[in-house]
Request: fold
Amino acid sequence: MIRAGVIALVVAALTAGARAQAETETGTEAETETGTETETGTGTETETETETPKQKAPAAKKKPAAKKATAKKTGKLTKTEDKVEGGLHWRIESEKGAVHVWVPPGYDRATAGTVVYVHGYHTDADGAWKDHDLAAQFKKSRQNAMFIVPDAPSGKDEQVHWPALADLRKAVSRGNIRLPDGPTVVMGHSGAYRTVMQWVDHKLVQQVILLDAMYGGESKFDEFISTGKRAHNHKLIVVGSDTATESKDFIKKYPFAVVRDGMPDTVAGFTKKEKRAKLLYIKSQYRHMPIVTNGKVIPLLLRITPLKAL
Reply:
């Protein structure tokens, strides 16, 4: 009986120990699972943190685009300054190409106007400025004006650089050059018509001079001289050589057009009627390129514009 009781006690103790060990192992497993869940939760948080930058990546990529847009809006440009023909000359390098700006000796902003000269094909602003000796021609005109020569298409497959005159004016202003408040005269040679035709509705443009440039855009020049809301204040001079036929077809629509055969040698060679004409057509004795390179036509025509003389 005693032995049986002892055995029973031993068995009970062993059973209790086994139960306690089992509970301990179960608790350990539970802790392990809890730990696993915690690690999984930490892992999930880490994974979420890893994915968050990925979700933000498009926003990060937008930053350069925003900078680019700002650059276009403010206009990244560089400017150099020197003296040419006794006047101040600036060359601005803008996002749309080079722009030359020149003012003559004795320039007076208070009474000055603006001349925008647009070159034709097979050159650019730098080439026209140098090869056509534009500063000397502008000086010879003796007009109190700020002269602006922007880049324009050098061929028919090239886009217009400055479809809005307002943008060109802003580029000059961003170069810390203050534009005058007087009348604006736009002068364009040959393929420049593609640019000039897009500026006819600008409120500051009072006169357009087409130097053998009537290759197209007739409806726009009709608007400028006849049908536009400010047409009654506008004047147009058309010089024809290679474009003589197109120019004649254009001017014959207007009974108020005045026709002249050949450029005079001096401004005194123009009659009063020719100087005052709303639409003046001149059949040039000079060929297409000499019109802008011989130093005679550009200065002479600028002297019969609304600009003030120096």
The first strand starts at residue 78 and ends at 84. The longest helix spans residues 2-74. The two ends are 142 Å apart (CA to CA).
